[in-house]
Request: fold
Amino acid sequence: MEYSPHCHSTQPVKNKLFVFCIMLSLWVYMLYCCVGYCSTTPTFMMEERSSRNPPRPLQKQDPEMFLKSQSRDLLNNESDADSKGDGWEENKGDVVYDEDSGVAGALNETKKLPQAIIIGVKKGGTRALLEFLRLHPDIRAVGAEPHFFDRNYEKGLEWYRELMPKTQEGQLTMEKTPSYFVTKEVPGRIHAMFKGTKLIVVVRDPVTRAISDYTQTRSKKPDIPSFESLTFKNITANLIDTSWSAVQIGMYARHLEQWLQFFPMSQLLFVSGERLISDPAGEMARVQQFLGLRREVTDKHFHFNPAKGFPCLKRPESNSKPHCLGKTKGRTHPNINPDVIQRLRDFYKPFNKKFYHMTGHDFGWD
Reply:
């Protein structure tokens, strides 16, 4: 048999080619696995995101243009933690105290426009009231402030409805936006949505409220002018600057007149911000009665926090840590010139007297 050197030399080449094919196959397989994994990961994230925030249908633009407030406002609500629902420690969710929600109940849940709204006032205690109300099993309330009727009205009612939490039959949908009370377009807009809407206003000594308002602003803008210089147009002439929103908001009687053009007094409840601190269960009894709800939130749900000076929330049947106001609440007020405080009290006195007469309740601020 004749020896062939050509055939012998091709054997190593075949071996190398075989090894190369195996390595190429392994590399292609690994690449396929990687591509397959990467392609599934974004899909999962998108599906999860879309389930949390379903797409909203486009709304027709409201022909009525949003009218900006003419007040001189140094208070930027957009960056206020309270407007985003972050005013309470350990209480970020909409159903923190909800023990009735479950798979069976979720099948019958729908989103509804609010039947009751906390319309004001800023720095009066609206966040505290909202969190107290969310203890009630028959109330579902959105945590963040929607600002629909004053800033987002052109987006339409369906956009507004999508912001609301899901409710079961018999449950009440609520929201709170304190700037509603002082925005003149809002009463007519809420009336157009539902003329039977129940309205809650948390009011507080207007002088204390103004100082609290200023304190909040200064915490974000330390270089703003002093409270005293902002309060007066001309301090020697004792001329109060009513264009400054911190002063303007406390003129409650003037704002209430706008609401009474659209709603009867029977549809408005005025909650004392002072009593909401000193007697939260008592004020909550009034609120629950006004809303036509059984009295579920009682003194068993409150625990006073001496460090904060505010009541904290607790489960009556549990020994868990109470839910208290967060760091954005209960700020220490600056020292204000007593003469300026007295001038402000004199300024508000006729407004307070008229407000007492209109509401039939003396809040004792004078």
Remarks:
- The chain has one domain: 69-359.
- The domain at 69-359 is CATH 3.40.50.300 (Rossmann fold).
- The radius of gyration is 30 Å.
- The longest helix spans residues 5-52.
